[in-house]
Amino acid sequence: MGNDIRTTAEAIEGAAMPKARAVHTAERGPSPEQEPLPEAVANTPLEDKTPAEWAYIRLVLYIKNFEEQLDADQEVAMGFTGGDAGVMRIEGMGFYAPDLITFYGTDPAGTKTQQIQHVTQLNVMLRALPKEVNRPEPNRIGFRLASSLEEG
């Protein structure tokens, strides 16, 4: 701690701030754990966020970061672990406070799909899939999701 003198308010705020860390085996751009939170998110105290809202925010940041690493012929998809749910091309995401996260999309066959998970069961894997052939540009849901965080 050394000469780190803080007011009581600063100490309480520091204790409430999320803690994160990431270490990678190779050079790459910063991952979400290494980036500052969007200002609108950082300005809302952690204790004012429900588990669902906080899980949603962090998933948005992970999806956006993952998309930043894709090439022009790839889109983000999400694989669900612990069952035979398969893979879903992410077309939307939401939360229902206090404890549900919802993913909207289509499966590889193009079938409309929705996954609803309790935050305590949340376990997803982001995957890169080839973009849909009838779409000239890849769908970038992460950037739209992240911009919605700035709106508060």
Structure description:
- The chain is an alpha+beta fold and 152 residues long.
- The longest helix is centred in the middle third of the chain and has 18 residues, at 51-68.
- The protein has helices at residues 8-16, 39-42, 51-68, 141-150, and strands spanning 74-80, 87-96, 100-106, 112-118, 124-130.
- α3 (51-68) crosses α4 (141-150).
- It is globular.
- It has a five-stranded antiparallel β-sheet, with helices on one face.
- β2 and β3 form a beta hairpin.
Summarize the structure.
By secondary structure, this protein is of the alpha+beta class.
Give the class from helix and strand content and strand pairing: alpha+beta
* Low-confidence sequence ranges: none
How many domains make up the 3D coordinates? 1
- Kindly state the mean pLDDT as a whole number? 81
Q: Walk across the major sheet and give the strand order.
A: 4-3-2-1-5
Number of strands: 5
Please state the CA-atom Rg, rounded to the nearest Å.
17 Å
Q: Indicate the overall shape.
A: globular
The description of the largest β-sheet is: 5 strands, antiparallel
- Taken as a percent bin, the fraction of beta residues is 25-35%
Order of helices and strands: HHHEEEEEH
Give the count of helical stretches: 4
* Terminal Cα span: 34 Å
